Amino acid sequence: MALSGCGDKKSGTTAAWASPDASSSALPGASSSASGGSITESADAPITLSVTPAAGKKDVPVSAEIGVSLTGAKVTAVSLKDSAGKVVGGELRDDGTSWVPASTLKAKTAYAATVTATTSSGLTKTATTTFTTMGAPAKKTGTGLYLFDNRTYGVAMPVVVEFSPGIKKADRAAVEKRMFVETSPAQPGVWSWTSSGTQAYYRAKEHWQTGTTLKVRIAVGGLPTGGGRYGDRDRGATAKIGRDLEMKVDNATKKMTVTQDGKVVRTALVSLGRKSKPSVSGNMVVMDKLADTVFDTTDTDGAAGYQTKIQYAQRVTWSGQYVHSAPWSVGSQGRTNVSHGCVNVSPSNAKWLFDNTLIGDPITVTGTGVKLAYGDGWTPWNVSWAEFLKGSALPVPDSLK
Fold first, then answer.
1. Which is catalytic among the residues 6, 207, 340, 342?
2. Known catalytic residue: 342?
3. Are both 228 and 147 inside the same structural domain?
4. pLDDT at 153 (0 to 100)
5. Are residues 46 and 83 in the same domain?
6. What Gene Ontology cellular component terms go with this record (predicted)?
7. For the chain, what is the mean pLDDT?
8. Furthest C-alpha separation in the chain
9. Are both 45 and 87 inside the same structural domain?
10. Handedness of CA 194, 198, 204, 207 (dihedral sign)
11. Neighbours of 209 (CB within 10 A)
12. Which of 133, 166, 201 is the C-terminal boundary of a domain?
């Protein structure tokens, strides 16, 4: 299959990666070549072909793709080998503009690429090029991926990538093109950036289907990210989506309703943030779970701060709002808001929630009068689909609008 950076696939999965071949990556119906390199043709044919990197080019980023410009034929094979003859696997993008190596190239290494294009009548054209990669960059962009191999997540789990420092608008499209997501069964989605460029989210139009497999590759190792910086490394993970469990908290009733696969499985009385420390309303996601922790606000609140041992805490915002056990507020739960912004529940309800929730489960709070800020937590579900699409640095296919 070919690669699609935006995740729109005709074939039933979003962008997929092929396994390395013993000698080359056979790509039915695609094309490529090498500018400045040698070209051979089986016969006269209306084929125009050029590729990048140009022959002999040095100091090429280790994120390099074999770029293709082709008319009159389709790429049928691509081979990339290092100076020791080791084959590098990879795959052609959906639009045929380049072939993407399956892993970051080695630094200060010579590579040779061979691309074969074939017409519908069987005429072929072959192009070759050689290039040498650069050494280790002086400045790097740190990256993080909030998804781990062999984990099971809730249906609202976005793919979350973090960048430090943030990626400026002018550089986001190039970075976004190197972030690949494959879903099975197919649920095409889109990347969307926070305003600071420190995070990018990937989601589909609706929550993931139960049983979905997410396969992610953030292929930014050695990629120019702006300001003379390069991505620190490639990151990837393959994970599963579990059952559909959702929590809804209503300030008017001071109650949480928990549904699983559409059926109510638990209700719990709650106490939300007091007037001076209101809870936020919005569509949030469980980001972290801590069976035992200490809430310490003395650094930010000084003498007015506090240190309190907490059990069964589930983070839902970066600003410090959690769902957690609050035995001291049981008498107020269902009646009055007394917390510092968190969703207080009884110890028994807190333990049940902790035992039954997954990171990535959605939680919606309504009626507090204070709106959740975008980026305060994993917030891609807190905006409409149309608004979410505006955050993409690449054109969004019409099929996803």
1. 342
2. yes
3. yes
4. 98
5. yes
6. extracellular region
7. 90
8. 87
9. yes
10. negative
11. 15
12. 133
Instruction: Let me know whether 99 and 113 are in one domain.
Output: yes
Structure tokens at 6: 């935006």
Whose CA is closest to 141, among 110, 174, 108? 174
Edge to edge, what strands does the sheet with 140-145 contain? 189-193, 199-204, 159-164, 140-145, 229-231, 224-226
CB 353 within 8 A of CB 249: no
Instruction: Give CA–CA dist 348/354, Å, rounded.
Output: 10
Q: Once rounded to an integer, what is the mean pLDDT over residues 228-246?
A: 98
Q: Last residue of a domain, which of 133, 167, 195?
A: 133
Q: Which residues are within 8 A (CB) of 219 and not within 5 positions of it... i.e. 6 or more apart? A: 63, 100, 104, 178, 179, 180, 234
- 387 in helix, strand or coil? helix
Does residue 362 come out as left (phi exceeding 0), alpha (psi in the -120 to 50 range) or beta? beta
Question: Looking at the chain, how many residues does it have?
Answer: 401
What's residue 225's pLDDT?
Answer: 98
- The answer to whether residue 18 sits within a structural domain is no
- In 3D, which of 39, 37, 71, 70 has the Cα closest to residue 54? 37
